[in-house]
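re: that chain from earlier
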Amino acid sequence: MKKSVIGALQIGLLWVIYEIGLEAVKILHLPVPGNVFGMLVLFLLLFTGILKLQWIDTGATWILKHLSFFFIPISVGLMSLGSFFLHNGVVLTVILAVSAVAGIVGTGMSAQLLARGREASHEQQLRRDTL
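^ sequence. v structure.
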C-alpha cells in the first residue's frame, strides 16, 4: 500500500512537471511542444540535483513498465486515418526510413566518438604509468 501511494505521488510530480512544460510553452510562445519542454525541465532538474532520482524512480519505472498500454489510444486513433495513409503512404515511408537511418547513423557516430575519447584517455593513463 505504501509503495502504491509513493508511486502515485511520484507520477503526480511528473505530471506537474509536464503541465509546467505545457504552460511555459504557451506563456513564452516557444516553437516546441510542451511535453518536450517538460522533458527538458525534468532533465535540468535531475542534472542540477534539484530533483533527486529516487523522488521519481518508482513512478517513472511503473510508467515505463506499462508504456505499451499508453499507446493503445494512439493506435486506435490511427485507424481512422486510413485514407490519409493510402494517399501519403510513400512519403511517410520515405520520411520514416530517412529518420531511422539518421538516428542509427547519429547514434553510431556518437558511440564511436565516445569510444575514441575513452581509448585516448586510457592510452594517456598508460603513458603516465610507464613514466
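The longest helix spans residues 82-130.
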